[in-house]
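Lab manual, section 2.4: Encoding a predicted structure.

Procedure: take the sequence of the chain (173 residues), apply the prediction step described in section 2.3, and record the output as structure tokens. A sample record is shown.
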Amino acid sequence: MAKQTYGNSVAMIEEDSITETRQYLTFSVGKEVFALGIATIKEILRNVQLATVPLMPPHMRGVINLRGAVVPVIDLAVLFGRDASEVSKRTSVIVLEITDEGESLDIGIMVDAVSAVIEIGAEKIEPAPSFGTPVRAEFIEGLGKLDEGFVIILNAERTFSLRQMAPDPQTEA
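Recorded output:
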């Protein structure tokens, strides 16, 4: 069996069959395990000092200074409708580089703990279910089947688009 690497994808070649795998960073928010494709991840930070910004939506935990750039930090638990994350020794901020409406931007997401980088074969990723997950279906790229259960693979572009995270003016009034 030969292994070919292409960016963040790996192809396992065995005689006449090719299995594509992708690399994902896994992390936890509460009891759920999520994953993001490593192509969108810029860096992982721990022990971060956040500056709070008044009058921001509840899921906006604050901002950080990342080498002179102001990066907003989102509390993923609050974005997903849960109580705010408690900061602990394992709390991390994952800095993502995403494209939103044609513009590249950095966004930090606060998670309870970062686990590992894993490879998941395309054949082990199921489509997003329309019910039964702790996250809205349009945020989910798929469910990765692992030996110990499932991991919810998030679509970074849809989950963290500014339009999705903006407060609804109908509920603000």
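Check your result against the sample. The two ends are 61 Å apart (CA to CA).
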